[in-house]
């Protein structure tokens, strides 16, 4: 009897949301590709990008660390890479991991891809981390009143409910990384999110070729809906509006799955978010089926604070979707007489 093939999982996003899922996925499959947004412009990443012209490195660092090994050596390296200098010091809040990635990007002939490969080896990661593009662009948001906000960090930290975001776009065309497109084509399941809608997930869909690859892949495409709204980005959004926004940026492609949390958040936990203007996302609404073939509703929270998806529960759900797709593909191949 042949050995069971590991599910091929692609996670598209960036930041802490993707890292939570990746950290749990690596326990179950080594066939993971994390496709990472390359438009961050805040903090240590923004300084390195503005002063020295480095590509955005922060989300790459987070996802590499999420996929890193679990032995003592990896633990020590992870602690070092996660260390951040004081923002009031001459090192201006830089993350050690970002500085190492920047140094490797300059030192190696293969640039940021070589830096990722070398750091992947050092950290003994499971799977791989792939930038969505190797070209430079700024994320922009057009607000409902016509004002354009330039820069991911300015959009992310806008902190105003009105005027709402009308659309996000890049200030120039960028081509998708071929490695990212290949991973999408070969996957069993492609997961969009979890992560901030307009600054972590949607930006990946703006690189030329990504939406086309998602339309053509035989993988299931699933969107993991946020569990909390975010002031300045998604105030007042329910699960249907989150999913509908993804549907729009996919050019009308209907998702195979929308994954929606139904676990309630206690009032004392919600109280931690009052000053942030964040609220639980309403999971109800049959209109989600306008944007996805299937809606998967489940109890998926780690209540914190911070409130996040439970990585293990979400990873198990994603792998079930991957296995379902793989079995369906094998059944089609058998019926068609192909290997």
Provide a descriptive summary of the structure in words:
- By secondary structure, the protein is α/β, with parallel strands linked by helices.
- The protein has a domain at 136-339: CofD-like domains (Rossmann fold).
- Helices cover 40% and strands 16% of the residues.
- The chain has 13 helices and 12 strands.
- It has helices spanning 15-25, 43-52, 58-66, 72-82, 96-107, 111-123, 152-156, 178-186, 197-205, 210-216, 239-249, 267-270, 311-336, and strands spanning 9-13, 32-36, 128-131, 139-143, 148-150, 165-170, 189-192, 220-224, 255-261, 292-298, 301-302, 308-309.
- The strands form 3 sheets. The chain has a 7-stranded parallel β-sheet with strand order 3-2-1-7-8-9-10, sandwiched between helices. It has a 3-stranded antiparallel β-sheet with strand order 5-4-6.
- Strand 8 (220-224), helix 11 (239-249) and strand 9 (255-261) form a beta-alpha-beta unit.
- Helix 1 packs parallel to helix 3, helix 5 (96-107) crosses helix 6 (111-123) and helix 8 runs parallel beside helix 10 (210-216).
- The longest helix has 26 residues, at 311-336.
- It is globular, with a radius of gyration of 20 Å.
């Amino acid at each position: 009897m042949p050995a069971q093939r590991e599910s091929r999982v692609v996670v598209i996003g960036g930041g802490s949301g993707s890292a939570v899922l990746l950290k749990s996925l690596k326990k179950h499959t080594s066939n993971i590709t994390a496709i990472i947004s390359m438009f961050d412009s805040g903090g240590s990443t923004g300084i390195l990008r503005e002063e020295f012209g480095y590509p955005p490195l922060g989300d790459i660092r987070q996802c590499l660390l999420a996929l890193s090994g679990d032995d003592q050596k990896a633990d020590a390296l992870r602690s070092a890479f996660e260390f951040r200098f004081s923002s009031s010091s001459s090192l201006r809040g830089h993350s050690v991991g970002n500085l190492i990635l920047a140094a490797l990007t300059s030192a190696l002939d293969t640039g940021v891809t070589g830096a990722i490969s070398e750091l992947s080896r050092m950290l003994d990661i499971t799977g791989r981390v792939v930038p969505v593009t190797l070209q430079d662009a700024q994320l922009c948001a057009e607000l409902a009143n016509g004002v354009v906000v330039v820069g991911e960090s300015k959009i992310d930290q806008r902190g105003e409910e009105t005027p709402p975001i009308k659309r996000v776009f890049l200030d120039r065309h960028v081509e998708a990384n071929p490695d990212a497109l290949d991973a999408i084509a070969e996957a069993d399941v492609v997961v969009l999110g979890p992560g901030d809608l307009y600054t972590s997930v949607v930006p990946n869909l703006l690189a030329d070729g990504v939406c086309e690859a998602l339309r053509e892949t035989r993988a299931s495409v699933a969107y993991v809906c946020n569990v909390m709204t975010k002031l300045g980005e998604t105030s007042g959004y329910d699960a249907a509006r989150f999913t509908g926004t993804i549907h729009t940026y996919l050019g009308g492609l209907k998702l195979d799955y929308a994954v929606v949390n139904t676990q309630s958040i206690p009032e004392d936990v919600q109280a931690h978010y009052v000053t942030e203007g964040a609220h639980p996302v309403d999971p109800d609404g049959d209109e989600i089926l306008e944007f996805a073939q299937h809606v998967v509703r489940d109890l998926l929270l780690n209540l914190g604070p911070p409130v996040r998806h439970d990585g293990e529960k979400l990873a198990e759900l994603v792998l079930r979707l991957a296995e379902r797709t793989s079995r369906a593909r094998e059944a089609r191949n058998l019926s068609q007489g192909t290997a």
